[in-house]
Fold these 2 entries.
Entry 1:
Amino acid sequence: MFLIRCPYCGEAREEQEFSYAGEAFIQRPPLTCSDEEWGDYLFKRKNIKGVTTEQWLHSAGCRRIFVMERNNVTYEILSIYTFESKRGAA
Amino acid sequence: MKRLAPQAHERIDRSKTYQFTWQGESYYAYAGDTLASALLANGIDVVGRSFKYGRKRGILAAGVEEPNALVTLESGGYEVPNARATEIELYDQLNAKAASGIPSLRFDLRAALKPFHKFMVAGFYYKTFKWPQKLWPHYEHYLRQLAGFSEVPQQADAEHYDHQYQFVDVAVVGGGAAGLSAALTAAQSGASVLVIDERAELGGELSSEFASSAEAQQWFSSTKQALEQMPNVRILKRSTAFALHDFNLLLVIERRQDHVSLKQRNEKQSRQRQHRVRAKQVILATGSHERPLLFANNDLPGVLMASAMRRYLNEFAVLCGDKPVLAGNNDSIYALAEDLVKRAGVKPVVLDMRVGYDASRLIAAGIDVRQGYTILKASGSNRVEQVSIAKVYYDGKLWSASAATETLDCDVVATSGGFNPLVHLDCHTGSKPLFSNALQAFLPACDKPARISAGSVNGHSDWQACVQDGAYAAHQILGRLEKSVAPTTVKPELKLLNVAPFFCPTHQRNKIFIDMQNDVKASDIELAIRENYRSIEHIKRYTAMGFGTDQGKIGNVLGIALAAQLLNRSIPEVGTTTFRPMYTPVTMGALAGEEVGLLFDPQRFTPIHASHVARGAEFEVVGQWMRPWYFPKAIEHLYDAQSAEDLHTAVQRECLAVRNSVGVMDASTLGKIDIQGPDVREFLARVYTNAWAKLAPGKCRYGVMCDENGMIIDDGVTACLSDTHFVMTTTTGGAARIYNHLETWLQTEWPALKVYLTSVTDHWSTTAIVGPKARRVIEKLCSDIDFNAKAFPFMDWREGTVAGVPARVMRISFSGELSYEINVPANYGRYIWEQVMEAGKEFDITPYGTETMHVLRAEKGYIIVGQDTDGSLSPYDANMGWAVSLTKPYPFLGQRALTRSDTVRTDRKQLVGLLPHDAQKVLPEGTQLVNAIEDKAMIGHVTSSYLSPILGRSIAMAVVKAGLSRMGNTIYAKTVGGETIPVTIADSVFYDTAKEKLDGEV
Amino acid sequence: MKYSWLALLKEGLKGHQDWTPTWPDVTPQTAYDVIIVGGGGHGLATAYYLARDFPTKKIAVLEKGWIGGGNTGRNTTIVRSNYLWDEAALLYEHALKLWEGLTEELDFNVMFSQRGVYNLGHTLQDMRDIERRVSANLLNGVDAEVVSVAELKERIPILETGKQVRYPVMGASFQARGGVARHDAVAWGFARAASRLGVDIVQNCEVIGMDVSGGRIHGVETTRGFIKADQVGCVPAGHASVLAKMANVRLPLESHPLQAFVSEPMKPVLHTVVMSNAVHGYVSQSDKGDLVIGAGIDSYTGYAQRGSPHLIDHCAAAMIELFPIFSRTRLNRQWGGIVDTCPDACPIISPIPEVKGLYFNCGWGTGGFKATPGSGHVFAQTIGHDTPHPLAAPFHIQRFTTGALIDEHGAAGVAH
């Protein structure tokens, strides 16, 4: 039962306010890609055991999506950041 | 067994005598008693029967670890199944009966099967009842009757429950010496502190010390008083912390009324409350449970835990027997002996497996102390009468018993085989407990952040050390909270009770009970290992050890130790089974809290709801919404009798009214998303399959939305308010999902698009006036819009004033009729509806519900996403290729998927119309379709089906393999009822194919 | 030793001293023809059917912990075959037929109890879906029935069928041949039967690497050394992606926590299985008397075998919604499993195209237990013949490229 600090709202809130929104940073291939590439993009996931990088939506809050690095074995949250900060850094 | 004269620190109130009923007979006891102490005080030995062999069982413990004394408490709406007598606080007129005994406590069928018990070993049922397999249900039927304890209550709950959230700096679990000390230290720093204790009074095991230590009593009173006066401390008594989840979410059940007599319960107050505590730091001062020694017939009534006997003596003034034999493998056994002598004048025989403990004081008092002895076997019929004892030797690795035995008469046996620290909560988040050889116990690892353990859960045995450990733990966590309090404390030394290593006699292991509730014997563990169930988890599962309502609190560690011996491994190598929530059983209602009945899920009503109720509407559940399904008219009968139209009659009437005159529908539930920004058209072009670049202000457009898999997920109309402002409608059920979907794309993939979404579903109310006379109705209400069909064409919208209310009027249609959807701010919704009803009176305006809406749209072949589509239909499959634009600069979501090899197949299931050959035959929706009468291979199914009043015949929509190229073919519907109905594949537009009705009456 | 009353009688008189291991513990050999990775029900079943149908093959099952310790020992044991789509229904029906003879086949009582399974409908759309599914089931030779509310009230008197609740029950589908089984017994029974046919069952042997080169597999690296094999069948449930990564393969899976809980044991009161998707929960009563209740899946990925408590609370509320008399019963224990979910809620039973000799059987999500014998059988055939068994063919991993999904999400009543 996570306690999640939304990077936009700045407060730690109950997991129920948020929704898991899947693996982060999946690259969308162009229209010209092969069926295999499209299938990979659409369905195949890293599904890592350990530290994952994933999207969460503050669905009952500010409704912003942010990135969470989380250990899905120990359930530790390692970091939370916005897409903007990532883009800014890149 | 008897009640002693008043004792100095007893917890009973002898001024209040309570009557209670046990097994239908009346008894008396005092306020402050538990049901267990009351039964003991009344000399009741046998309180239950065991699960498998129906053996007589007495009270073993004094707390939540009790495996035997399960009762059914009360009846009707107040019944509690499988309640533990040791936990039930006695109240006046309490009524309980044993939870076991087939058919009765006195005579148990399972006990009568005694000659067969030797065959009923662990897992015997896996080896038998196999052949023929068909007969298993019959065997099972009888086996099931023998299993289980209480009946499930027969009535719904008479009481209710609630939840409360708590946010504290420090949560302290346990109100014994360590917990109170920790709480006080923490609270002195100014931190907010929550103390949680499962009993009616604080003190825990410390209370047992009061009789012998004035100092303990004094420390307790002053600490308790101090805590009660501090505003930053909250104390939850009668409260069990049953789970500790990640990020220190501590779940607590507070029993608020279970101790109150039924007559005095406050029905406005919840029976139990679940506290969901988020604590910055958690101190686990959970204490420990004693475990027994093992010997044959150790399950006889009258054999109990030493600490329990001590507690019954000191707190309840109940003497469990006049001729006690105390047996132990650690120092604690002597404290009980001293109390017995001092308080009851009883001289027990004390057996200590070890040698060397200085018992001179007791010996001087004339107590028979035998060191190097233990019990091998107990005997008795209804209760223990004798024990055989023998000398035992320890060779540094294993115990052995001398062959010579001696018999002692007794009427109670109290044993202590060491202590099991209550590591449960610490383990709920995956930590493994650590075994200590010095303590012969598993200790909490406390390796997760923001928690610490204190007191006897850490192996401390004397109360002063527990007090010190509590303060020490508090200091540790205060540092983490950046608070402090002086003076600091040092970690106390462990004062060992010198628990001897585990011993299980080798004889009659088929009479040595490891798990009493589930009748798991030492021989069962031997058998499991013999059959290669060697992992502790396999042993547990094969023998059912620890599966009872006590979760093996007493027995599991014994089973682990025995398995270790048999496997020739160390105890930590064998390890424990996993400790999972709940620590003790939790009432299902308390988990649910208030979210039962109509509060199970939020109910959403449109602003017009009250009008629908007043008009007698029947409602359909759509997502969380309650939508009018149809509006049955009252039918007058002879002799003043009255009934209402059925669905069919009402829908026929509603449909014809719309087609021939005018109807009105509440469309407020459709999802509405306000979309603003300079890039909205581009955004729409990406999320919908069709083109949006040229949608001008004042115009509306229908769109189909796909996921990246190319399948339809939603549809709806979007209106262009201005070049930077649009309103999208979604399906009712899909509103939240689609809103999330759109936000996700915007925020993650298209941050460069300047588009902003706001859900406005609840902000607007929508009343749709539908039918050839719709214009005549709306013209009466709105004078600032020109409703002429040319001035205000189909798929346009206008801003205006309807009945004095600013409104957006959209000329869109889900029926093929002339239709105006009046959107007004939600608070005006009902007013507008009533104004429309009034204005439409002269045209006999007819309110209609979702069912009529479905028929009307099906007559026009309009799909309902989620009914006619199921996530496996592309826009092409749905015959909506006209709404797909492949030439947009940025490919729409799902576009790439449409060209995959399977998605381009020409024989995919496609949406078509069906006309049953029998025009009065309405196909059941969902019915599968086949090519030929005898076929079983399915080619599709009926998605929508109705009797069309305007066409006077049945129509259906369906998906059919390659259906679009099979127009006119006859196929067959195979109903669940066994009918085979011939149908013709047809265009899915059944009515007004020339679209002549769209402009209504001219 | 064959299990029977007679054997029990004989052994009982001798104090049960002579029972032999249900399956022997063995040290792994250095090479096998086929290695099955994962000693859960599906893996053990695969090994059993391989050994039975391909007797010349040398087979080992490698289990990282103890057999049956994953989802096999953690599920709510529901067995049924009333799936919507042909491909799924045929696969599960194949399994159900095997269940019906499994106790005798394995000489181990798996306590398969055909007490029937109800899938409740609470909305008009639920009822359309039920009609659609039952109609399809009947044509596929799967027993199925649409049950009215009145009939439900007769058959399950303790079920709340009134209209005053939030989501009134409108009807149900019923599969009489569905039911429950004893989950541990399935693992142990397959283990025993497989080992009697010569399969090596190796516990405490974790696969930590795969030797893949030249487009094919040569063996696996384990915590107990390298073991050579030309064919490796992976049946690792929640850990499928972890294993796949060792062969540099990505799967269309996400592993999520799924939670369940049981009440204290009580006298029999519920004699069938009741499932409801709309209110999120399913329940049966075990032979021991516990109400066995399954909750929803946690939205996030997790390999910790624990989920969030609000799902349990919600499920408890759902149970009370369906059975008001359960409100005062007490819940004894909750636990979690790791379910490997596929985008179309259907499994992958497939050779891995890019690695010859490597096969995966995974993606069963919340519904794997019921398929155990069928899954094992078709997977064994797929490995044995190195070509997909006809019933397994639609579940080829290629479907995620072609788009030929078998979308069981559409069958609302059938998500579990």
Note: The CA atoms of residues 28 and 41 of chain A lie 6 Å apart.
Entry 2:
Amino acid sequence: MTFDRRDFLKISAGAAGAAAVGGLTGCATSSASVGGAKAKIVVVGAGYGGSTFARYMKMWSPQAHVTVIEPNDFFTSCPFSNTVLGGINSMEDITFSYDTVKKQVDQWVADKVTAIDTGKRTVTTAGGKTFAYDRLVLAGGIELLFDKVEGYDAEARKTIKHGWKAGPDQTGVLRKQLEAMPDGGTFVMSVPMAPYRCPPGPYERACLVATYFKQAKPRSKVIVLDGNPDIASKKGLFLAAWKKHFGYGTDNSMIDYRPNNMPRSVNPKTMMVGTEFDDVKGDVINVVPPMRAAAITGMAGVRDGNNGTWCTIDYRTFESTVVPNVHVLGDSALTNFPKSGSVANNTGKMCAAAIAEILAGRQPDQAPVVTNTCYSATGQGTAFHVATVFRYDAAGNKMVAQKGGGVSKEESELEMAYMESWAKNVWADTLGLPESHNFSVKG
Amino acid sequence: MTLVAAGVLGSVAQAYAVDTRARFMAANCAYCHGPDGKSRGAIPSLAGMDKAYFVDQMKAFRDNTRPNTVMTKHAMGYTDAEYEALGAWFSAIK
């Protein structure tokens, strides 16, 4: 007897699961087609979600054949990239090799995916190679929609950086622009409409750039153009930090926060950002355009949710609800999790755990528990967090935030030490860095 | 660790030896407490921690009788049975 793994998943996830699993488990232990076969798993993208998934898939299901397709030679962390803008860390401090992951997986392909055929179950790369899969894991993060901002064309992008995908061409250039800016200059940054990658990130960025200005360019200003009606994350903590350290609320505030100010246009020649209300001139402009799930999810036809912007998934497996055998991790998924590095890291493990169970002929955990912990730095030697435990509710097909979650009482030096430790541990976990790895990052 | 080692040797052994739910829940802690509960930096390691001590601390965090920054928020999200499973998992890591 053979049975489709998708069918197994459907049956086992359904109301008749308990009865069906008994029979199928017996089948699985006697059938080489499930437990013994080398399932081909292709992972696209090796960020917090994809790299973690690939490592845990091999640890928990060593017999699976795991291929990772990732165009970048190095992993550059978005978390802590604001500290590079603040001059606390350098690009080197947040950049890591993929050496361990490359050794753990069966195949590493340094290329970009150009086509996905979910009917034939194949992935094709720019280099012209085609890879067949039994399960495809899409961990491509986000796609930035520059055409939603007038004038944000390829030429403008040489001058105006978003810094929302960390790397030398974004974070690195933005830092150099800040260094070159004269004292008394204006840094104009933006916050996209929720949901977006890293909800507290923009407000943290305001803190870190203001930290640099306070120390090196004290007559300079940070203007925050927020598309949202209010601070979208850790509001009380950011307002307290802005007041305590940067004079927010006084005439001498280094931070000028403007809600309901969605950037509609940019002009790199005049260095103006246009909103619905007025034009704002900046010496350095940092506009983060609207975003949606990564382009590869569009190729696979799984960008079905929220008017075709994000991907709906089954929380028990992270499998797309519209295309079988395609799983979507991290920021691309439409969930009620924040789009954080911690969540991407843990969704990688949730998906690996579920597929490992399926490959072993068992039912995935029907009540998974997963956490998010997200720290933000003030730049002033302190940090604060938000933490939530989520538990799957099968009846409502949703993840329910458990009682007791929430934010820090106040910023503290202790939490900055924890934030630094979090970074080292999540990098070690995502990339398999050895215990002897010597981190250079500073809190 | 003998159970984990057996799991590596064969999927059948793994199927009956490893509490895969506990394994995933424990892996959940890794982004702060390090892979296999071995932390780098200021956050404490969990690897090799005595099971009874682990369970007692989770209860103390839950009841807010042990001062902490973030752990009450986590402890309140898990059941007593899950404290036991996590404690058993981490205590077995050498």
Note: Chain A is about 30% helix and 25% strand.
